[in-house]
Structures are given as structure tokens and as C-alpha cells.
Amino acid sequence: MATKSQKDWVSPHKVSLLIFIKLIGSTDEEDEEDLECMKRCRYKLSLLLLELFETPDLELNELCKRLTAVDVGLKDLLLKSLQNCVKTGVSGLSEFFQSLEDLLTGQEPALHKKSLFGLFTRRMTLSFNKMTFGQASHFVDQMKVYMGTETFKHNADEEALDTSLDVSMQSTENEDEGKVINMSRNPVLHGPVTNRQAEFFLANQVSLIQTTEQEALSPPELQLRIADILTASPDIAETHYATFLNCLRAKEFKGALDSLYHYFDQQQWHRESAIKIASSSEGTEPERCHRFRYAALNLAALHCQFGHREEALAALKEAIQIAQETNDHGWLYRLEMDGSSQAKLLLDRFVARAAELKIPYLTSLGMLNHCQYDAMAGVPPPKVLQNLTQINIINSQKALGDLNSAAHVQQAAIWQIYGKNCIASIFTQFALHQNASASSDLMTSVSRGAAGIQSAEATCLSLCSLAEQHADRGMFQEASDILSFCRTKFPEHSRLSQLWMTTGAIIDHNKALLQGNMERAKACVEQLAALDEPEAEYRSALNLLHLGDYTTVFPRLEKLLESSRDKVFLNDEKKSAAEYKARILLALTQLFLLLSDPVSALPHALDCLTTSCSHFMDNSAALASLYIAQIQLSLGLPEKAVALIKRTMVQILSHGSLYVQCCARFLLVKCQLTASSQNQDKSRRETDLRSALPTLERIVKGFRKLGAADKTRDVLYFQARIYDELGFTIERNACAAECCEIIQRQPAYSARSSLFVL
């Protein structure tokens, strides 16, 4: 175990800090310029010293960079003071530490003994006084090595720096400030470190992993640092927990499990923790019981992370049993939500109990999960939205920043389930704006650390949603740029990388189907198989549908439909079973339409409409209505189809994607012209044909933006027929020529056109 002397050793870096403590506390500087410098930056320097107390020892050049960011005169002041200390060897250091003791004595001492600066000074002074003469001589040699390189560079470049200072001051400050910020966020250990410095490093890395992972060290590099800490201080239990989190990042189950066992084993049987040392033997048993139940809870989370459902539930039930025996209600937020009939009852009891115990965080978290369950289970939207409003009130009153950000993302997801994509976009931008405000440079380091909780999963989900919205509008390059930003912010080894990878694969698959690139579509499905298995199976069926393999696709869709019945969640609570079922029913409807069997397609379309209406999914209901209208057109009922489409157009034009809008407009034009063809009035017919041309031009423009060659070809062919009926030969030939050009470069396996829903 580490001893107290090991924690409080004197190092050259700490001597540098003591120099500034002396300068801050003393008022009799001989150099008036140094006195003015200290008056000018006393406040900022004090804050920097408080931060440096907790950080690992820095090299002198790194310390000088941080001092320069505060004031350019501090570097020269430090180097001059260090030279004075070591100029006369041990006697100079002894005089320096004696002057520090003088600051703590007297009727009105310059440093109070119980202040942070005073405590630090006393510890370092006592540690120096315990040194033998040989140790002090060796320490002087260490001081010379510590300041040798920087002092030589300072003396050699002093004149050049003086002449160029006015020119390069601003750029130097900006560069140094950037390096200082990066260094404070990601401190690196150099040489021997104390337990407290190691603890600060580990706490900083764990915080970065959980909030802004791109700023943390990479898994291999962090593991090397942790190994060094374990070698120097094997009693720090937190190193095992940091290893556990690092293994989770790398998806290494064996290492994560071993590290978790090591952590709780050391926490359980070594009563001295690296961060908190028990002051007495009283309360040892409750503390050990507390560690046992949180060990089981972390074990459950580990198994859940790797999809080991049975093992996770067993560990979770053990944690709940131990917690109930000791009247600990922290277990409340780890409830089983498998879509069973008991899920709603458990959530109701959870929220009521958390509110009764006046635990606002768990109350808000429980209501948030309740809203998610209600939205996917088909609870009326007014009740869900009312609960979301109450959540926002609790989060604002109790300053729950992380849950406030999560609530915005949850609201966006719920509005998207309800088919209101424009409203979902607003809440997505709320979350992004809140996270951007939280990471403002004007915030202090403490508030930035508290707000950093908001900027991980919520930011990634919001960016992925924003990318999907851009792709739906045909802005594929912008969507790719957003995902590229996600890739830099959440690297591939990040625990959140699966989110943007899944979104990117879905967008690429949609684009590949639109443009008829089936090889790319197959590759996207293979990529999705490792990320989201239900989505990959559905999109694999879509590929077969586009390729015309109807014999294979029908049993596959039936199997997927059966797997989604009587469920609320799919894919570990990440997907709505009702929404998934509606998409499968639309694919089955499409299948029978391609087989020219509208009668068999109608039951699936009506089933989709019923499911969508019962779960208030307006977007899916609108798509089902379009399919029903297409069936009516196939059965010779164009007037009824026109009436149905017009009732649906408000939802589609307000919240539908560009592709669905173009398909709906095209279907409406076909139904209207089919209905008018039954009218014997030629002048009315000509008027209808002319009025359809601007709409068709707009549809062609939309399909071209999406790169949907098949649909562009169909609209051009329809335009050519209209121009031919109107007698516009030149326009007809132009449309026909472009249509033939598309056919020539069209893939041979492209299915015939219909209303494909992606």
C-alpha cells in the first residue's frame, strides 16, 4: 500500500508551484515589474494553481505553456526563481523552504495554515525537512535536470522573443490556450506519480469515456497508462474499474468481466479505497453490503451490454433482492422491460415509489421510460405528451441537465413514431442547441464537467436523426457530412459508434434502392446484420423484392411478421414492434401489387392501416392509404382513389419524405387523369391534361434529386403520353428520348415500377 510519505513527496514540479504560492503571499518583491505581473494575474494564477494541485506532474516546458496562457511574464518569473533556488545548491533550497515557513508564522500570516495553499505548503515543507543531506543533494540534481532544457532555450532565444513578442503575441496565446485546454481535459502521466494524481487521471478518463469519448485516450493507449499505474500503485481499486470501462469500449467481454471482479474484490476486502478511506470500523458491514449489490448491478449491466439476457436478469434480481433487504431504493431505475404484460405495472410502481421517496432523478428517469413504453404500446398521444411536459418541469426545477437533454431526444423520437417528422426535427435541434450551449468556452471547468453528461448519447442520437432528415430530402451529401462529423466525434471504438454506423448503413441502403444499385444494397444489409439484426432481415427482404425473387421473399416476410406480433419492443427495446409490423405489411402489400393481385394485397394494406391508427402512427397510416388508393386504381375505382389520396396529402406533404411526396403526387395525377378519361367532355379532358404537366415537372425534378432512375423513367413516359395526346410532338420526343436513355443504362435486374416504400 502507498504510505503517506509517498503521497506527499517533493518534486521539481511542486517546487515550481511553491514558488508561485510564495509570490502570491509575499508583497516585498524587489523587482517592481514582477510585483505588477503578480497583481495583474493573481486571480487567474490562483485558479491555475488549484487545478495543478490535482494534475500529474508536468514537464517544465508544459508548465511554461500553461503559465503563458495566463500571463506572458510568468514564465520568465518562474525561470528566474528556479535559478535562484538551485544556484547555491542545498543551501538555496533550504532558504527557499524556510521563507515558505515564514509565510505561515506571525500574528497575521500571509498564508493561513488551513487554507488550500497553506496545507499544500506545510506538507511540502515537512516532506523537505525529512530529507537527509544526500537526498537533498540528489533533489538539487533533479531540479537541474528538470529546468536544464527550458532554461537553455530561454537564454538562447530571449532576444529573439523580445523582438517578435508584439507581432506574434495573439497567435501564440491562442495556440497555447488550445493546448492548455486539451491538456487539462486529457492529462498524461509522466514519470512517478502519487496516488492522488493517478486517481485524478483515472477519474478524468472515466468522465471523458462516459461523456465526450473522442477526447479520451484510445483503448490501447489508456490500457498502457493503466498498466503503469497498477505497477506503481496496485492498491488503487479504481484502476480495475477504468480497465472494465476500457474493455467495454473495445467489446472485450473476458477482460471486462475479470476487471469487474478484481475491482469489487479489492473494494470489498481492502478497506482502504484510493479515493475514500474509511475513518472508523463503524458501518463496515453496511458498506460491504452496499458494494455487494452494486457489484451485482454492474455485472447485470455488463451482461446486458453483450446481449446475455438470462445472465443479466439473474444478476439484476440478486441486486434487487440485496437492495430490498437493506431498504436501498437505488435499484429502482434498473427495471425489466421486455414488453410483457407486467412491464406497465412495474413502471407504474416505479414512478409512484420514486415520487413517494422524493427522488427527482429516478422520478424523471422512470417517467421517461414510461413515456417510451406508452408511445410504443399505443397509449393516446395526449397522455404521453402530458407526461413529457411534467418531465421537462422536473428536469428544469431540479437542474437535471443530462435528463433534460435525454427528454428532448425522447420527444423527438416519440413525435417521429407519431409521424410528425417536422416537429421531431425541432426537438432534435433543441437537444443539439442545448449541448452546444453546455460546451461553451465561457463555462467553468466544474460546470463544463457537469454539463458534459448531456453531450454524448443525446448528441449522437440527435445528429443521426438530423442525417436521416437530410437524406429524406434528397440531401445525401449533407447527410454524409453529418455522419462524418459523428465519426470524428464518436470514433469506431466508441460505445456510441453503433448508432451512426446503423444510421449510415440505412441511409446508404435507401439510396442504393432508389438508384437501383443492388450490389451496394446487399453490402449495406451485410453491414447492418452486425448492428441491427431485425432491420437487416427486413431490408434483406426488400432487396429480394426489388430483384423480383417473389417466391423467396414471401415466406421471409411472413416469418418477420409473425416475430413482431403481440410485442411492444424489438431489438432490446430499441425498436417499436408496431412500427416494424407496419413496414412488413406494406412490403407484403407491395409484393402482391407486383404480382398483379390487388385483391390479395388489400387485406395486408387494411391490416397496416388498422395497426397504424391504433398506435397513432400517422406516417404509416398515410402510406397504407396510398397503397389502398393504388389498389382502388387497379380495380377501376379512380374517383374513390382520388378522394382517399386528397385526405392523405396534408400529412404526406407536411411530414413525408421527398420520395413519398413525389410518389403520392404521381399517383394522384394518374388517378385524376384516369377518372377524367371516363368523361366524354374533350375540353375538360384537355384542361386536365394541361394542368397535370406542371405537377409532373415537379415530380421529375424531385426524383432526379434523389437519383431514382426508375421513377424518373416512369414519369417521363407518362409525360410523353400526355404530350402525344395533346399533340405536342417536340416535347413528346424530348421526353421519349430521355426515357430511352435511362432504359439503356438501367440495370438488367431492376424490378418494374411501383410505389416502393423504403
Automatic annotation (TrEMBL):
Q: What CDD domains does the database record attribute to this sequence?
A: Apc5_N
Q: In which pathway does it act?
A: Protein modification; protein ubiquitination
Query: Which cellular component, as a GO term, is one annotated location?
Result: anaphase-promoting complex
Q: Where is the Anaphase-promoting complex subunit 5 N-terminal domain?
A: 10-147
Q: Pfam family of this protein, just one?
A: Apc5_N
Give start and end of each Anaphase-promoting complex subunit domain.
Answer: 240-332
Which InterPro entries does its entry note? Answer: Apc5 (IPR037679), Apc5_dom (IPR026000), Apc5_N (IPR048968), TPR-like_helical_dom_sf (IPR011990)
Query: Source organism's superkingdom?
Result: Eukaryota
Assign the protein's first listed, main location to one coarse class.
cytoplasm
Enumerate the subcellular locations listed in this protein's record, separating them with semicolons.
Answer: Cytoplasm, Cytoskeleton, Spindle; Nucleus
Q: Which GO terms fall under biological process for this protein?
A: anaphase-promoting complex-dependent catabolic process; cell division; positive regulation of mitotic metaphase/anaphase transition; protein K11-linked ubiquitination
User: Which keywords fit this entry according to its UniProt record?
Assistant: Cell cycle, Cell division, Cytoplasm, Cytoskeleton, Mitosis, Nucleus, Phosphoprotein, Repeat, TPR repeat, Ubl conjugation pathway
Question: What family is reported?
Answer: Belongs to the APC5 family.
**PANTHER family referenced in this protein's UniProt entry, alphabetically:** ANAPHASE-PROMOTING COMPLEX SUBUNIT 5 (PTHR12830:SF9)
Q: What does this protein do?
A: Component of the anaphase promoting complex/cyclosome (APC/C), a cell cycle-regulated E3 ubiquitin ligase that controls progression through mitosis and the G1 phase of the cell cycle. The APC/C complex acts by mediating ubiquitination and subsequent degradation of target proteins: it mainly mediates the formation of 'Lys-11'-linked polyubiquitin chains and, to a lower extent, the formation of 'Lys-48'- and 'Lys-63'-linked polyubiquitin chains. The APC/C complex catalyzes assembly of branched 'Lys-11'-/'Lys-48'-linked branched ubiquitin chains on target proteins.
State what protein this is by name: Anaphase-promoting complex subunit 5
Source species of the chain: Pocillopora damicornis
